[in-house]
Amino acid sequence: MKCKLYVAATIAILAAVSAEVNAADVRVLPPGQVPNDRRLGPLKELSGDYFPFEVPKSRQQWEQRQADLKRRILVATGLWPMPDKTPLNPVIHGRVDRDDFTVDKVHFESYPGHFVTGLLFKPKDVTGRLPGVLCPHGHGGRLQDYGGKGIREMIVRGAERFEGSGRYPKLARCAQLARMGCVTFIFDMIGYADSVQISREVAHSFSKQRPEFDTKENWGFFATQAELRLQSIMGLQTWNSIRALDFLCGLPEVDSKRIGVTGGSGGGTQTILLCAIDPRPVVAFPNGMVSTDMQGGCTCENCSLLRIGTGNVELAALFAPRPQGMTAANDWTKEMMTKGYPELKQLYAMLGAQRDVMCHPLTHFPHNYNYVSRALMYSWFNKHLALGLEEPVVEEDWSALTEAEWTVWNDEHPRPADDPDHERRLLRYVTGESDRQIVALTPKDAKSLARFREIVGGAFETIIGRRLDQVGSIERRQIEELDRDGYRYRKDLLGTRRHGEELPVMSLLPERTPASKQIVLWIDGQGKSALVDEQGRIVREIRQLLDAGMTVLSADLLYQGEFLPGGKPLTKARASSNPHAYAGFTFGYNHPLFAQRVHDILTLVSFARSDQFGSEHIHLVGVNGAGPWVAAALVLAGAVVDSAAIDTGGFRFANLESYRDVNFLPGAVKYGDLPALLALCAPQRLWICGETAESSGIVRAAYTAAGKSQRLNVDEGQPGGVSARIVKWLVSL
What Rg do the C-alpha atoms of the chain give, in angstroms? Predict the structure, then answer.
């Protein structure tokens, strides 16, 4: 990759030492000035920011983007790889008869001992297999009740039609769909109605950490350990949606090839995600949440990693080219007709399905899934589920259910205990199953190594969020160059136009020794200041590399060195301004600092492989806390890097105690922690220390499976003198 060379007007290229210049000063920018880096600005927030959808130029580009985003959803929700599906053990009981449809009470187990509850609406006197419709609901709940006064006001405004059934809009939707000939299942969001095992307060109103749940051994949702394993309420609800679809499609009277999904508000969010990752729905109507504005304000609508670099419009687009409808209201969707919907139409047209996407403006109504919006959905489903009904389809009144008729639990079907420890038991089960799946991926041969790379490597690619080919063009701005004591010093600023990032870089080149066309990217936990000692002299180990003819390059990564105006190391990662202390509100929209530092290393690798140095061989070194960053960078850089030396210091993500830790990385523990990252480095030449024979077992397995065990060197020496041992190894290559 060729880098554009931008030479500052003030550049000083010196052939000899000047008394006014201290060559050992590694600072690139003037004192007090920080890099011009977009990442130093405000964090992205779920509300108040803009989430546009940029349509790719070709079908091929879209298919790659679609695959990347589907994996992002699955990874973010803890469903990559998909958990094993256990028996649902469904129970259907308590039938209620209405004139032209019936209502049954349902409960089943999405995980063993964890119940999903809901109501099943079925048409009467219809033969043959019928289409099915899944109805996730939003924060009004399955039993949302406008009340007598409220429904009368809505009728006056034209938002509802019937005072009886209209006051329960979620159930009115299901009743009408059943009348239209659809088997319709509405299931409870966690903590609503008959879903009692995890409270609504925990699932939807979480605001601050619960110390008794934020432990390393027995954690609950929102805890650091849960985040490190991508265990979230959103993930559980997404799994519940998948299992609800399993239940619906498994009914003997349902035609599993004619499945629709529709929900409003929080149910719209669930519709977007389910339809993005599950191939079974053929038509969708996600209402009230497809927007370039606010992305969903509840903890249940957010999780770490989900919307980094994307938003709800693009996530909804993953359903294309299958038919999809929605409305715009006087809420965060009010600009959809000019921001979001045109892009959806453009994508559907590119895929040859321009008539299969619809957004109807109803901006005279506030946030809703009211009678008018539902009418549009009925017509959309009538067409795309081939119901054959005469248009317009008109929703009619019906006798609302009583409390006894809508309640799933009773004396014969007792409700499960709302035991606070259920949350912990559930996550213990999920953890055990996930660990079993990942351990089973341990490489044994070339085929299993490929599968390990697909699942674990794919997960880490999503978690880090940038491949080497996504770095883009690099702009180099030379600041200073001079010779001293037989070495050449270069100070540069490297900028990535695509990402708006800028790195202060110091390069040291041999002058007395013929260059070997080898470059060592020396990454230190303290930044590039580690190249020199307290007296300003190049440290011995770096001099040895230079004397061997190697070029050495180092930089201040984000929040190191020149990124810190006060000079004090960052001790806590930044967090969203959202008052809820939930990692998903920060890392659902922003890369973790760990990932950003890996991005910086990839920028350096991309620069090193350009024509600026004429280097033919690139070596990575990670010491003094930087080892884990370098391991992740090596995984993503692959064969571009010839070798890497990594001091892990025994680091484990599992030992972190807060999502505000500067090394926090969502999902890292789920996918095998640091040893799995090191294993993914195979077959690149690798030297590691800080590990034992036991802890590096999976690393050895991966190198053996790759047929390159000789390329792995595990140094079990003492912690001291690591840099010297690394230099000795590099020089011997």
Answer: 29
The answer for residues whose C-beta is within 8 angstroms of residue 443's C-beta and 6 or more apart is 449, 452, 679, 682, 698, 701, 702, 704, 705, 706
Classify domain 4-14+460-732 by CATH architecture: 3-Layer(aba) Sandwich (3.40)
- How far apart CA 422 and CA 203 sit, in angstroms, is 13
Q: Which SS3 state, helix, strand or coil, does residue 620 take?
A: strand
Matching residue, tokens 């880098």? 3
| CATH 3.40.50.1820 location in the chain | 4-14+460-732, 64-403
Give strand pairing partners of 325: 358
The answer, as to whether pTM is greater than 0.90, is yes
End-to-end CA distance of the chain: 25
Could you tell me how many residues make up the chain? 733
Chain-centre distance of CA 110, in angstroms?
23
In this predicted structure, what is the pLDDT of residue 230?
99
pLDDT in tens, 523-556: 999 999 999 998 889 999 999 999 999 999 999 9
3-state secondary structure of 506: strand
Q: What superfamily in CATH does domain 64-403 come from?
A: Alpha/Beta hydrolase fold, catalytic domain (3.40.50.1820)
Q: Are 154 and 103 in contact (CB under 8 A)?
A: no
Residues 6 or more apart whose CB falls under 8 angstroms from that of 371 comprise: 159, 160, 161, 166, 169, 172, 395
SS (H, E, C) 7-71: EEEEEEECCCCCCCCCCCCCCCCCCCCCCCCHHHCCCCCCCCCCCCCCCCCCHHHHHHHHHHHHH
Indicate the range of 340-349, 507-516, 601-610 predicted with least confidence. 507-516
Q: Tell which residue, 328, 374, 391, 398, has the closest CA to residue 97.
A: 398
Q: Would you give the DSSP letter of residue 568?
A: P
Question: Would you give the distance in Å from CA 336 to the centre of its chain?
Answer: 24
